[in-house]
Amino acid sequence: MSDILVVEGYNASLNVDRGHLVIRDGFPAEGKARETRLARGRCGVKRIVIRAPGGVLSMPAIDWCARKGIALSFVASDSTLLNCMVPDAPHDGPVKRAQAVSGTTDEALALARYLLGRKMDSQAHTIAQDFPALHIGNATARNAAIKQIASCKASLANGKTLDDFLVLEGNAAQAYWDLLTATPLPWREWAYKRIPAHWAAVSPRAGGRRGRVRDATDPFNAILNYAYTLLEVETRVACEAIGLDPDLGLLHTDARLRESFIFDLLEPLRAKADVWALELLHKEKLHPAWFHELRDGIVRLDPDLTELLSRRLMPGFAKAALELANDYAKQLRRIAVPLKLFRTAPKPISQRRETWAQTTCAYCKESLPRKGLKFCGRQCYLRYSVEVAKPIEKARARLSEMRAAGLNPGHGGEAAKKRGAKLAESNRHRSLGLSPDEMRARRAAHRRRYRGAK
Question: Whole-prediction pTM value?
Answer without folding.
Answer: 0.73
